[in-house]
Amino acid sequence: SGVCNALSLEIKASPKVQAYVGEHVLLKCSFKSSSPITENLLVDWTYRPLTGGQMERVFHYQSIPYPTAAGKFKDRISWAGNVANGDASIAIQNPALSDNGTFICSVKNPPDVYHNLPQTVLLVTERGLAFQLSSAALLSLLVFLPSLLVVILLLVRMGRKFRVLKEKGKCGYKKSSIEVSDEPEHTDRAGCGGKIKEWCLNCVDTDEEDPY
Predict the structure, then answer these.
(1) By the 8 A CB rule, do 81 and 89 touch?
(2) Taking a C-beta distance cutoff of 8 angstroms, is the pair 88, 61 a contact?
(3) Domain residue spans in the chain?
(4) Which homologous superfamily does the CATH classification assign to the domain defined by 8-126?
(5) What angle do CA 33, 37, 41 make, to 5 degrees?
(6) Of 120, 117, 79, 81, which Cα lies nearest the Cα of 99?
(7) Residue 209's pLDDT band (boundaries 50, 70, 90)?
(8) How far is CA 27 from CA 127, 170, 200, in A?
(9) What is the pLDDT of residues 147-184, one digit of tens each?
(10) Which of 6, 25, 63, 80 has CB atoms 3.0–4.6 Å from 89's, for a disulfide?
(11) How many angstroms separate the Cα of 157 from the Cα of each of 12, 148, 149, 202, 206?
(12) Residue 57, exposed/middle/buried by CB under 10 A (0-12, 13-18, 19+)?
């Protein structure tokens, strides 16, 4: 009879839960009972610090939740379960580093009162600096970075156009000193001017479109 009762109610809980200081954390606990759920169903959560010591009850449920009225978890534990769905979970508000410890979820649904006792180890840590950015800061960063990239690209493009204009001006000066003449051009001069013109075109050859 004892063996049958032991197998008639089964509890499952996460073996380890990671939490962060000041952030809401959920301790999940689910159960299966061979008997119909009644108002006599009991849920108890107990806690023991990682440093050791006695187990203490921090939450009790029977038809309605009864959070602990004393101790370190006073006003910080709330009911997050639904016994009709086999859920006996609780939530902890503003977890602290001192909350690290072992939690045990116990469920009794008479006549099913014998069950396993799964343990959940809660590990509370500080979040890194990268995770402490507010949503407003992240939004500002997303808006600022594209704008900065556009400005940089414009400055690079303007710099390249300025160099092209500067080189073009130098080449135009050399060309005018040779080609400007009041006399008609002769065949040999035309050939020399053509070479100078070709040299200037090569000088200003660039992928940039003509600024004019």
Answers:
(1) yes
(2) yes
(3) 8-126, 127-163
(4) Immunoglobulins (2.60.40.10)
(5) 90
(6) 120
(7) very low
(8) 19, 77, 78
(9) 888 889 888 888 887 777 777 776 654 544 444 444 44
(10) 80
(11) 64, 14, 12, 20, 12
(12) middle
Residue 25 near residue 73 (C-beta atoms within 8 A): no
CB-based burial, 12-41: b 16+ in 10 Å, e otherwise: ebbeebebeeeeebebbbbbebeeeeeeeb
- For the segment 9-46, what is each residue's pLDDT rounded down to a tens digit? 899 999 999 999 999 999 999 999 989 999 999 999 99
For 124-159, b where at least 16 C-beta lie within 10 A, e where not — what string? Answer: beeeeeeeeeeeeeeeeeeeeeeeeeeeeeeeeeee
Angle at 87 between CA 84 and CA 89, to 5 degrees: 140
Q: Do the beta carbons of residue 90 and residue 25 sit within 8 Å?
A: no
The upper half-sphere exposure of residue 118, i.e. CA atoms within 13 Å in the direction of its Cβ, equals 16
Looking up tokens 């070479």 gives 195
Cα 148 to chain centroid distance, Å, stands at 23
Note the pTM of the prediction, 2 decimals: 0.58
